[in-house]
Amino acid sequence: MKLTSTFINIISGIYVLLAIAGAISAYFLSYPAELTEIGNENVKDAGNAALAMSNDLVKQLITLCTGLIGFCVWLFRRPLASDPAELVERYLWTCMAVLLLVASLFAGFITLQRTLLMVAWKSFDPRLDIVWWPQFLQFYLFVFGAAVLGLACIRSLNVLVEKQ
Fold first, then answer.
1. Residue 38 predicted with pLDDT over 60
2. Percent of the chain beyond pLDDT 90?
3. Could you tell me which of 6, 98, 79, 10 has the C-alpha nearest to residue 87?
4. Are residues 119 and 47 in contact, defined by beta-carbon separation less than 8 angstroms?
5. 145: burial class by Cβ within 10 Å (0-12, 13-18, 19+)?
């Protein structure tokens, strides 16, 4: 059963709208204005707690990126479509997702390296620019890479469905 391009365009549009709505709601749910007013008096050894949380987040995103890059390789190896334009579109979206995910991996490795530098300096604060910016880039590059990969999957539904 081959899906029509109109159906794929409709669900692609719905996916993009849901991704935008999710991004806007996530931004307002995590807006840091209220969180910065909370003190850290109740946390024992706040520097070590922040270090552990920061490293765990970076390592988790590195693991997720590696898995999604593996999925991209699997998507590259799916059977060829009868329509050459569909194949070009699949490769284009998947290559874009791979580039974003690899950039996220790179930012994560920079974050880990800078975290080690801060530990060597015997101080760690996740709010400092030396750590905050690479973590910020790693997270958002991962989110955009995963969103583009989702769009690549939707755009290549005819290839993902097993042929009878």
1. no
2. 10
3. 79
4. no
5. buried
Query: Are 29 and 103 a contacting pair, CB within 8 Å?
Result: no
Above 80 in pLDDT, residue 6? Answer: yes
Nearest to 143 by CA among 32, 28, 23: 23
Ranked by mean pLDDT, which of 109-113, 127-131, 153-157 comes out on top? 109-113
Its sign, for the CA torsion 40, 45, 50, 53, is: negative
Check whether 164 has a pLDDT greater than 60.
Answer: no
- 109: three-class secondary structure by DSSP: helix
Give the C-alpha separation, 123 to 47, whole Å: 7
